[in-house]
Amino acid sequence: MAEVNSLHNETLRKSKTAMHNKPIETGDFVRLKSGDTTGTVEEILKDKAKVSVGGLTVLIPISQLIAERKPQDLRRVKGVFTDILSDVSKVKDKIDIRGLRVDEAMQQLQEFFDQALIAGKINLEILHGKGDGTLKRIVKQKLKEYNLPMQISHPAPDAGGDGITLVHIH
Fold it and tell me: What is the pLDDT of residue 74?
């Protein structure tokens, strides 16, 4: 029985690796490399793809997408995206994570960045406070995970200084 499970797991691993190496094509189900957001490719335009995400169509660089298997329960996925991105105009470009535990802050930052990227926000503001610098460090850590060309800065001291991280995505 252990041998059967081992073979099954190896087959799944190889299948998943093959999916990730597959070139992105129209009709593919994809995931953002930098998060958990998924959608379906509607059209390929040079180095970008039009991706349908929860009823919205967004333009995303192909280099930021990974081909995935289509989930079996699409109703659940659609409900999640409908809640997250029911209206692009509701996507905020600012977040306040002061006072949160590290795990809570990481989760909120992940959702914030995913939503902002899909909505096409290029200027973001993260209010983390000064404190001992833990939240500021996790903000920088999370931004590095996205591997996007961006400029990170802080406002003048009288406008929040080191307690706020400003992000401009190029």
Answer: 46
Question: Which one is the CATH code of 88-169: 3.40.50.720, 3.90.1170.40, 3.30.1370.110, 3.40.1380.10?
Answer: 3.30.1370.110
> 151, exposed or middle or buried, with CB in 10 Å at 0-12, 13-18, 19+?
exposed
CATH of domain 2-84: 2.30.30.30
Nearest C-alpha neighbor of 27 from the set 55, 79, 68: 68
Which residues sit opposite 163 in a β-bridge? none
pTM, two decimals, is 0.51
State which amino acid sits at residue 47.
Answer: D
Q: Quote the CA–CA distance of 39 and 25 in Å, as a whole number.
A: 13
Q: What pLDDT, in 10s, does the model give residues 51-105?
A: 988 778 888 889 989 988 776 554 444 444 444 445 566 778 899 999 999 999 9
Query: Does residue 122 carry a pLDDT above 90?
Result: no
The H or E element that residue 63 is part of is none
